[in-house]
């Protein structure tokens, strides 16, 4: 018994899906349009999420030392984080240590961990390793390997530890840390920057 196209009733060329050539072609075109619309919507959502995340900050609570994430607010000389999903409006304002407040960079490390100002990342190479401190603000460096860089925005302080015991600190462009691994932050792990 010959199978027929489920759309038009003509003899089916593609037996698995029971379509004739014309209907199969039309079906694929329609599906490709649907998939491309879904991809565009997904990319738009990811872009919007990225823009929102760049406004997110984190800070360490004054009362119990827990890290919290939300919007940074300075009110009457005190520093607060407004939680992203508070249980109540008034319960959403949490007092934090100003030293611990760090903005979201909008980027992730190679293991998909979100990066904030004050985070530490590590890169290992043959002659030693580097620990990068992610920073935001004005920077100027005349010792950079590639060129002199200066400006205002995201940058990193590279602390290079060499196998022979030497140590060097330079300012690097922020994109240098994107292929590295997150290992902690400057508040909880300052010992990582000490010479061994």
Beta-strand share of residues? 35-45%
SSE string, helices as H and strands as E? HEEEEEEEEEEE
Helix content: 10-25%
3D shape:
elongated
Radius of gyration over all CA atoms, rounded: 26 Å
Count the beta strands: 11
**Unreliable stretches covering 5 or more consecutive residues:** none
Distance between the termini: 79 Å
**Integer tally of domains:** 3
Number of helices: 1
Q: Describe the strand arrangement of the main beta sheet, using strand numbers.
A: 4-3-2-1-5-6
Class from secondary-structure proportions: alpha+beta
Largest sheet features: 6 strands, antiparallel
Average residue pLDDT: 77
Give structural notes.
It contains one helix and eleven strands. It is of the alpha+beta class and 196 residues long. It is 17% helix and 40% strand. A six-stranded antiparallel sheet has the order 4-3-2-1-5-6. A five-stranded antiparallel sheet has the order 10-9-8-7-11, with no helix packed on it.
Quick description:
With 196 residues, this protein is an alpha+beta fold.
Would you spell out the secondary-structure blueprint of this structure?
Elements: H1 21-53, E1 57-60, E2 67-75, E3 78-83, E4 93-95, E5 102-108, E6 114-116, E7 119-125, E8 128-141, E9 149-162, E10 167-173, E11 181-185
Antiparallel strand pairs: 1-2, 1-5, 2-3, 3-4, 5-6, 7-8, 7-11, 8-9, 9-10
What structural keywords apply?
196 residues, alpha+beta, six-stranded antiparallel beta sheet, five-stranded antiparallel beta sheet, 1 helix, 11 strands, 40% strand, elongated
């Amino acid at each position: 018994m010959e199978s027929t196209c489920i759309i038009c009733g003509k003899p089916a060329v593609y037996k698995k899906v029971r379509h004739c050539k014309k209907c199969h072609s039309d079906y694929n075109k329609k599906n490709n349009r649907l998939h491309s619309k879904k991809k565009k919507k997904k990319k738009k959502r990811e872009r919007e999420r990225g823009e929102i995340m760049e406004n997110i900050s984190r800070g360490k609570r004054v009362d119990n030392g827990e890290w919290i994430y939300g919007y940074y607010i300075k009110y009457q000389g005190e520093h607060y984080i407004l939680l992203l999903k508070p249980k109540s409006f008034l319960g959403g304002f949490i007092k934090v240590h100003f030293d611990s407040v760090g903005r979201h960079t909008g980027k992730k490390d190679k293991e998909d961990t979100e990066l904030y100002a004050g985070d530490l990342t590590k890169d290992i190479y043959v002659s030693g390793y580097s620990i990068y401190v992610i920073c935001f603000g004005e920077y100027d460096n005349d010792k950079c390997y590639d060129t002199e860089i200066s400006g205002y925005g995201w940058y990193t302080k590279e602390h290079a530890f060499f196998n022979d015991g030497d140590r060097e600190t330079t300012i690097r462009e922020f994109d240098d840390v994107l292929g590295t691994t997150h290992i902690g932050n400057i508040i909880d792990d300052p010992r990582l920057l000490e010479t061994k």
